Amino acid sequence: MTSLIVGASAGLGRALAESLARRGQDLILCSSAMEDLDPLAQDLKLRFGVAVACVELDLNKLDSRSLADTAMHSKSIDRVFVVAGSSTHQDAGPVSDDQATQLIRVNYEGAVRIINFVLPNLLEHQAAQIVIISTVAANRPRGRNTVYASSKHALEFYVKGLRHRFADTGLSIKIMRVGYLDTNMGFGEKRPLPKLKPDHAAELILKSCAQPGLVAYIPGWWRPLMIVHRLLPWFIYKRINF
Amino acid sequence: MKTASRTFTTIGQDDLARAEWCAPDRYRDLRASFSAPNSIVQGAGLSYASASFADHSRTVSMRHFDRIIAAELPQDQDWGSVTVEAGITLGKLYSFLISRGYVPSVCAGHPQLSVGGLIASDAHGKNQFREGNFCSLIEEMKLFHPDHGELLLSPASNPEVFELTCGGFGLTGAILSAKIKVGRIPAQCVEQEKQKLVGLEEAYKLLQENWQRADFMTSTHDFGRTADIPGTTVLARFHRGDGRKETAEFEYPKLNPNIEPGNNSFVFNLLSRFRGRSSPANSMDNSDPIAPLRDYLFSPHTDWSYFALHKDKIIVQHQVLIPANAVDRYLNDLRTLVQQGEYDISRTVLQIFRGNHKLLRFEGDGLSISFDVPRTPKSEDLLKKIDALNVAMGARTNLIKDNRIDQKTVKAQYADYEEFRERLHTFDPNRRFKSKLSERLGL
Ligand SMILES: Cc1cc2nc3c(=O)[nH]c(=O)nc-3n(C[C@H](O)[C@H](O)[C@H](O)COP(=O)(O)OP(=O)(O)OC[C@H]3O[C@@H](n4cnc5c(N)ncnc54)[C@H](O)[C@@H]3O)c2cc1C
Ligand SMILES: NC(=O)c1ccc[n+]([C@@H]2O[C@H](COP(=O)([O-])OP(=O)(O)OC[C@H]3O[C@@H](n4cnc5c(N)ncnc54)[C@H](OP(=O)(O)O)[C@@H]3O)[C@@H](O)[C@H]2O)c1
Question: Following CA atoms B256, B258, B263, B267 in sequence, which dihedral angle do they give, to the nearest 10 degrees?
Answer without folding.
Answer: -10
